[in-house]
Automatic annotation (TrEMBL):
Lineage, highest ranks first: Bacteria, Bacillati, Actinomycetota, Actinomycetes, Pseudonocardiales
A UniProt-annotated Pfam family: CBS
PROSITE patterns: CBS
InterPro entries named among the record's database cross-references: CBS_dom (IPR000644), CBS_dom_sf (IPR046342), Diverse_CBS-Domain (IPR051257)
Protein name: CBS domain-containing protein
Source organism: Actinokineospora fastidiosa
Domain spans labelled CBS: 7-66, 71-126
Gene3D superfamilies named in the record: 3.30.1340.30, CBS-domain
Length: 195
């Protein structure tokens, strides 16, 4: 499974000039562990975490200072194509609660511990049922394919009219959270279109 499969989006972020007071309000209101701080182009320049908020407000009152004075740097980031197991290992090693996901330098999502844990607790029967429901909807509420799921690997068997339909089904199944890979049966020779 990849970061893009589990990341939270759209991302709530703040700019460097946002006050610490405003950033704390967002953290507490949304229940986030940290907020990405971005520049005008949407590039991550730091994270503002609960720990940063506590440090900024202990002692002298700095709540009206810009968040740029209290953010954590450097920031560990991930790409949408990074494997979630590798991200989890990095988070454990660095004691990180969340990791911004960037594409071409621009923030596109966040992966938090809860996002990774959510995947682990998904019952495969629920994931398989979600795949079946999606495929039944695609097929006009008829059951055309059988679905099995083992450790996130989905196998779809049945008859496909042509290679295009096989590719569409593969793409649809990949969109279901909890599916890590897809194996789709071959096009049925009797149903294949001919010109």
């Amino acid at each position: 499974m990849k970061a893009r499969d589990v990341m939270t989006r759209p991302v709530v972020s703040v700019r460097a000039g946002t006050t610490i007071r405003e950033a704390i309000a967002i953290l507490t209101d949304k229940g986030f562990a940290a907020l990405p701080v971005v520049d005008d182009a949407g590039r991550v320049i730091g994270l503002f975490s609960e720990s940063d908020a506590l440090a900024a407000t202990s002692g002298a009152d700095h709540r009206d200072d810009p968040v740029s004075t209290a953010l954590s740097r450097p920031v560990e980031v991930a790409a949408p194509t990074d494997d979630t197991a590798a991200i989890a290992a990095r988070m454990l090693r660095g004691r990180l609660r969340c990791v911004p996901v960037v594409e071409e330098g621009v923030l596109v999502g966040m992966v938090a511990r809860r996002d990774l844990l959510r995947v682990l607790v998904r019952d495969e029967d629920v994931v398989a049922a979600n795949v079946r429901s999606l495929l039944d909807d695609y097929a006009g509420s008829t059951r055309r394919w059988s679905v099995t799921l083992r450790r996130g690997a989905a196998t779809v068997t049945g008859e496909f009219a042509d290679e295009a339909e096989r590719r569409v089904v593969t793409a649809l199944v990949r969109t279901v959270p909890g599916v890590t890979s897809v194996q789709v049966g071959p096009v049925h020779a009797d149903l294949a279109w001919t010109d």
